Amino acid sequence: MAKIRVVVAGYGNVGRGVLAALKNNPDMVAVGVLSRNPDRVRKSFNEIPVMQIADVDTWLDALKPDVAILCGGSKDDLPIQGPALAQRINTVDSFDNHSRISEYFAAMDVAAGKSGHVSVISTGWDPGIFSMERVVANAFLPGSRAYGFYGLGESGGLSMGHSDALRTIPGVKDARQYTHAVSASIEKVRSGENPEFTPGDMHTRECFVVLEDGADQNAVAETIRTMPGYFAPYKTEIHFVTQEFLDQNCAGFPHDGLVVAAGNTGNNHSARIEYRCIWGSNPEATANVLVAHARAVSRLADEGKCGAFTILDIPPAYFSMHSKEELLKKFM
Amino acid sequence: MAKIRVVVAGYGNVGRGVLAALKNNPDMVAVGVLSRNPDRVRKSFNEIPVMQIADVDTWLDALKPDVAILCGGSKDDLPIQGPALAQRINTVDSFDNHSRISEYFAAMDVAAGKSGHVSVISTGWDPGIFSMERVVANAFLPGSRAYGFYGLGESGGLSMGHSDALRTIPGVKDARQYTHAVSASIEKVRSGENPEFTPGDMHTRECFVVLEDGADQNAVAETIRTMPGYFAPYKTEIHFVTQEFLDQNCAGFPHDGLVVAAGNTGNNHSARIEYRCIWGSNPEATANVLVAHARAVSRLADEGKCGAFTILDIPPAYFSMHSKEELLKKFM
Questions:
Q1: Is B252 within the bounds of a domain?
Q2: Residue from B92, B131, B140 to probe the interface with A (highest A Cβ count within 10 Å)
Q3: Is B76's pLDDT higher than 90?
Q4: Same domain for B157 and B65?
Q5: Which residue of B has its CA nearest to A313?
Q6: Residue A278: which of B272, B317, B332 has the nearest Cβ?
Q7: pLDDT above 90 (res A1)
Q8: In what order do the strands lie in the sheet with B67-70?
Q9: Do A20 and A14 contact (CB within 8 A), yes or no?
Q10: Residues B103 and B204 occupy one common structural domain
């Protein structure tokens, strides 16, 4: 059977993760990398063609891809790039601005729908797997609420968005932010209380900050603690450290999370569902999920489907490289 | 919107759980119970009509059901009842003989397919949710194996099948069997070793047995320990107890389980996925899952689909009572 031909749009952490993940999926093959700056990418990567993302006709013609995995950012890249590319090729992306998913879905549905393509949006582990687990937990335990906790391990989970926010503060040279789940709140959910939480009840934030020479430590700390949305609602611990400390102790992108729902079945018997994942590399986890969805995109397209889809619209078998017969025999 | 009209075939533990679960799903309504012995059922249940399951034309005409939830046993009931009823109505069942699922799927696919009905087979928590979790874990972490462990809590999980097996032994008056997961083996899987296990490596079995007057305790113990498949491959602990002890300490049907897969993402970063559920009542948990699948059956039928399906063939959104818009906004 012909392999699914994939182009990877973007050569950041997720894009590199996708290229690595494709090697573990024998039914797919990476045929090219698309970038706004192909020359820069080529300096470190030459295994397959690296092409200018704006030259759509050129790379469509040269690479004959079936699916593009879009690895750009949700803030600036995907809102423009997504609808533009969905008119030309089947796509999958990890758009993760939760409050704007409905809007992005609508734009992608129009773009992919009118050109006859399939676009799976907003997948990875959250949104993505966790979204699916929230929906099925709520369906199997009606009335329960599915809660998401992040950073349950001792060192917590590295948040890219919060680390970026720290680095925008004047006087901050470099920084990392680790999210910690509040264990007592997890236990409350497990008990079946279905509690009301503020964000600060569920998570705390721990910052490792390297200051510029001569920066005012107290002023930086105050700016962090009062930053709306990012830190103001949370108990926030701040460590001022050296660049050496940061480089040695805060490398990598570990993250983890838990979806938990608890309630009762029919005659008041307790019931609890938990989905837990622990990732050594957050962007590689996202990449693995994107690649499995590229397989689903290809199958949906083969069926003649078009428009936008999320993980909620896709039968689980479509993610698997195994045949229907194998799944019935070995996985049911 | 009209409610989905459900008939419940069988009034055992699962059937009663389905009737209770339907009350928590406002888009569905139980319109009747089907039984081989309606008079016996009516002695304890009169809320809705109880009808003879063999009189298919009569109850189809009187109750106008959209879906039948089949709550019979996998050994004797479903292999006959499933294909017979799938020719007349949309069905969902929890056929749980793992080694014969392919064969049952084929029979149901023919029966439902040629009559234009939808039959979702083999759903509950295992097979069912756990099957789905095995497939997605394997798809998102290619090369990893998804392991199933049962009875992780202190008291273990009550196995109906093994309890029934104990009760077939001459000299045994009553019995319960609790399955226990071997913690050290779970830790091996979590470490990413993807180990090879024999069944006895993963679980132990604990039996509470009430003897008939004058039965030979040693002979019964020997019969248990050497019973092929059920106990011979496992470390088995046997407690001989009184009926009073059993009634007081072994009531109810608690069960729990874990699907766990561990491996690496692209550049050799560790990755682990775990799905855990803990049920106060095993048959009520199965019932809750069956009811959510009855909703999916109704949607698949509305789309004009027909034939047999498993949880692997169904988009997760089909299980939810929430609209597509609500799911995009609140669950993604």
A1: yes
A2: B140
A3: no
A4: no
A5: B315
A6: B272
A7: no
A8: B50-52, B28-35, B4-9, B67-70, B90-93, B118-120, B307-309
A9: no
A10: no
- The nearest alpha carbon in chain B to A145 belongs to B331
Partner residue opposite A315 with nearest CB, options B19, B278, B314:
B314
Q: In sequence order, what E strands does A86-216 have?
A: 90-93, 118-120, 146-150, 157-158, 172-181, 203-211
Structural domain contains residue B13: yes
What does the alpha-carbon distance between residue A254 and residue B21 come to, in Å, rounded to a whole number?
Answer: 40
- Mean pLDDT across the stretch B1-13? 95
Check A267 against B17: CB less than 8 A apart: yes
Residue A19: phi, psi to the nearest 5? -60, -40
pLDDT at A9: 98
Q: Is the pTM of this model over 0.90?
A: yes
Tell me the average pLDDT across B268-293. Answer: 97
> Under 8 Å CB-to-CB from B94, ≥6 apart: which residues?
B14, B70, B71, B74, B122, B123, B124, B127, B128, B286, B289, B290
Q: Is A81 in the same domain as A195?
A: no
Residues from chain A that touch B326, judged by Cβ atoms under 8 A, are none
Option in B19, B20, B266 nearest A20 (CB): B266
Same domain, B180 and B48: no
Judge: A331–B138 Cβ closer than 8 Å, yes or no.
yes
Question: How far A132 CA sits from the closest chain B CA (Å)?
Answer: 7
Predicted confidence (pLDDT) at residue B29 exceeds the cutoff of 90: yes
Say what the pLDDT of residue A109 is: 98
Domain that holds residue B171: 136-279
CATH code of residue B18: 3.40.50.720
* Total domains present in chain A: 2
The answer to whether the Cβ–Cβ distance between B328 and A101 falls below 8 Å is: yes
Torsion of CA A211, A216, A217, A218, to 10 degrees: -160
A209 and A115 in a common domain:
no
Of the listed ranges A176-190, A275-289, B148-162, the least confidently predicted one is B148-162
A131 assigned to some structural domain = no
| Average pLDDT of every residue of chain B | 96
Tokens of A330: 């070995």
Quick one: B269 and B301 in the same domain? Answer: no
- CA nearest to B98 within chain A: A332
Residue finishing a domain among A237, A258, A279: A279
C-alpha count within 13 angstroms, C-beta hemisphere, residue A319: 33
Give the minimum alpha-carbon distance from B218 to chain A in angstroms, rounded to a whole number: 37
Tell me how crowded residue B65 is: count the other CB atoms within 10 A of its CB: 21
A vs B, Cβ pairs < 8 A, gives: 235
pLDDT tens digits, one per residue of A313-330? 999 999 999 999 999 999
What contacts B140, CB < 8 A, 6 or more positions away? Answer: A129, A285, A288, A289, A292, A319, B273
Residue B161: predicted pLDDT = 86
Strand order in the sheet with B172-181: B157-158, B172-181, B203-211, B236-240
Rounded-to-integer distance, Cα A191 and Cα A263, Å: 8
Residues B310, A328: C-beta atoms closer than 8 Å: yes
Q: Kindly tell me if the per-residue pLDDT of B1 is higher than 80.
A: no
Residue B48: pLDDT band by 50, 70, 90 thresholds? very high
Q: Which of A299, A313, A328 to mutate against chain B (most B CBs within 10 Å)?
A: A328
Whether residue A259 has pLDDT greater than 80: yes
Shared-domain flag, residues B147 and B268 = yes
Tens digits of residue pLDDT in A194-248: 999 999 999 999 999 999 999 999 999 999 999 998 999 999 999 999 999 999 9
